[in-house]
Amino acid sequence: MPAYKDEKRNTWLSLFYYEDWQGNKKKKQKRGFKTKKEALEWENNFKLSANANMDMALGAFVEIYFRDKEGELKERSIKNKRYMIEAHILPYFENKKMNEITPSDIIQWQNAMREKGYAQTYLRMVQNQITALFTHASSIYNLSNNPCKRVKKMGKPDADKLDFWTKEEYDKFIGTIEVGSRYYVIFEILFWTGIREGELLALTKSDVDFQNNRMSITKTYYRTERRDVITAPKTEQSVRMIELPEFLTQEIKEYVNKLYELPDDERIFPIVAEAVQHKLKRQAEKAGVKKIRVHDVRHSHCAYLIYRGVQPMIIKKRLGHKDIKITRKHFIPACNELEFEESCRMLREPSTYGDCIARGNRQNGCVVGYICRDGGRYWGQGWDVSDKQSARFRARVLFEISQKDIPNNCLPLPYK
Known about the structure:
- The strands form four sheets. The protein has a four-stranded antiparallel β-sheet, covered by helices on one side. A three-stranded antiparallel β-sheet has the order 1-2-3, with helices on one face.
- A hairpin with a 5-residue loop joins strand 2 and strand 3.
- With 416 residues, the protein is of the alpha+beta class.
């Protein structure tokens, strides 16, 4: 294991031969080490990684992990994962051997992380990074004992509460922005379509079908290391066609027409995400509405659809969710934060599915609602109301029923 002094640079050089995982003999050289010890340690870790030996340090395995995932993960995902690993995992485990890290080590690390006061959802994201490292080591490089498997994950996968604006709050907010301006159109699109911030910033004129009131979502935008990056959306399901209300199509058209000779393939909104975030914060304070993130405007769109009686599967397709479970788990429960009085008010509104022919209240099943007729079909529409941990729990449900199932007190069939 030779290490040589580079007298010219006053540093150490590592120069050696090794066998890769296929048994091929190769030469390796690396300069710039401050000490001979550092050069020898780097050589040792490199040889272990070349042979995928789990006697290597976790810091060395991190590079193997990202090498293996290079063709699978997007550039932004790699950047985010690297940041969390380097900031929260390597300070504890960088020089510890993979096959010597125990469940007890993981628990002590978790306790140290909890003391830093991070949000529960962020703790879970960090946990997912170390779990991914050991899962990869176990499944691909035959690490015999995965310490993460025997330890309960820290943090929570979901926030305790999803923030969003009601339609009334959004109206107050948008009322503080000049009609027809760049940010007016930006927030109108976000609220009335529910698209992601990156999808909005990637929009081009060719993505909007002004004649048929549709918007095509095929890409997303982000900026990294002073570069503008346009890439595929978050998931395959994120590639979708969204129906637009006519007034929104007109607002977009009028704005685009003000942009002098905008090419069809250039971004309509050539700004970065931070600019949108800053504008939202400033105007929310001016409007006197609660502070939310730009992504929470997406939640607001979903809440609006739910309270207008749109079925979860339709919402799932419109938002581009990978699975209907995401829509039901993350978004629909969030709408329960609206006051029950608003639900009752909406019950008195005309049905979006036809003429209301009956109303009812079932205390035992905790359902208030009404039944309406749309052509030859009958629909029940209502809210579950129950007491859960001393807090009122509400969820809008929509279900189709047949005429013979309509009782006098509007008992509904379960939603399927």
